[in-house]
Amino acid sequence: MEKLPDVIQIDVIKEKIDKKEPPPPPPETKAPPPPFVPPPDIVIQVDAPPPQNTITTQSKQPTPPPVSSPASIGRPHVCGDDYYPAISKRLGEQGTTRLGFTITADGRVENVHVEASSGSERLDNAAVTCATPWRYKPAVREGQPVAVQWHTEVKWVLH
Question: What is the mean pLDDT of residues 54-60?
Answer without folding.
Answer: 65
